[in-house]
Amino acid sequence: MSLLHGYGGVPKDGPYDLPVRVTMALHCATTCAIAVLAAGLGSAITHPHGHTPDGARRLLCASVAGYFGVGVLAAVVAGASWHRILPWALPCLLLTLLLAVSAGHVGAVWLLWGLVAPVVWQIVCASDVPGRLSGGRGA
What we know:
Radius of gyration: 16 Å
């Protein structure tokens, strides 16, 4: 539903509907990102107070970046303009990549909160699209 109608942080800013074949491919990529996130969480939780293992950190950050990438791809295919995509996508992707590179010295709890921040940012930025909450297609 988020890919078709723009819900849960995945914007549907463009004027075009996504073709079913594109939606299914993006859905598959989103599902894979969530599965990789679950694997990363399982690996990271074994070290809640120590440093996050490099493999767990990479899995977590790659899965969240992949999710954001799917959102960007969906918005581009739907015909959204870059001035609507960049305000939510750029901070999300940059923070995720920054955490992937520099979060090796923090515990898993802080890394997870760091990954929650861009997700919340995406939801807040994408929720200002008219008609999103009312079920409409926007104005």
